[in-house]
Predict the structure.
Amino acid sequence: MCKYSKGIPIFGDSNATQFQKCLRVKMQTFCRDENLCGCDKSSKTNRNLGLRRLTHSKFERYNFGRNWKELGIMNINALARQLEDKIVELWDWVKDHVKETLITVGVLFVLLIAVAIFTSSGSRYAPDSELNYLVAISRYATGDTTASIQTFLKLVETQPKSPEAKRSLFYLGHYNLQKGALEEAERYFKRFLDSGLDDPFMKASAYNGLATIAVDKREYDRAISYLKKAEELNPFETYKAYYEYRMMKIYELKGENDKALEVAENFVEKYKEHPLFSEVSEEMRFLKGVKYVHEGSTLD
């Protein structure tokens, strides 16, 4: 059977000539099997293509009706493959930008939780404060910090005990951390943690922010303490793993390779599916090598 006898080529396909030959053979077979006569050879275009047309288009109805369905399936399969390729590309990008991705996803997750809470439950504070807060975080998520920060500040000033104002403290801390105003960021994060708001994920994110500030000040012990609190609070394993990764790096900055190795081994044992697994595994082998050089330990 001809290789291309069951499908039609996409225009521009290099195999179109071969397909035309296959189609011609198939049409001749169809004419004979159906006992049809009068295959039209008069068309110059058809002669040039090496194709024959049946006078009443019976072949077209028979053959192309079926093959157009097949082409639809082929197109769906092609789209599926393209989608799969895009997913793989996205995953490769995520693996190369794990830390940025986790931070971004964390902030967006906080935004989603905030929206869910304020749309599903009432508040004893002014409805306008809820609406203004939701508008502010949506603007903040899209990069409009000018208007959103003004709203956060106003909420903190006018409704300091409201959930909206307490959450605003977190975003003010995050905003100042992003622009490098570390003292202001630290002040807002601590005010948020002291506000009494019951939100484990947001609290964990605040402790992670404080850890970043502490590392910048070279207060490594304090940074590790903050990350341990974040790990205890955060309900998601992906972020727990990320905090352990950060602790490993901080122990290395302190020169405490044994503790860094301990954290790395714990990470590799618990988080085999995490995007940072390969990086931590390599770091673990390096730390074992350092230990071997200094102490003569085995490299298992």
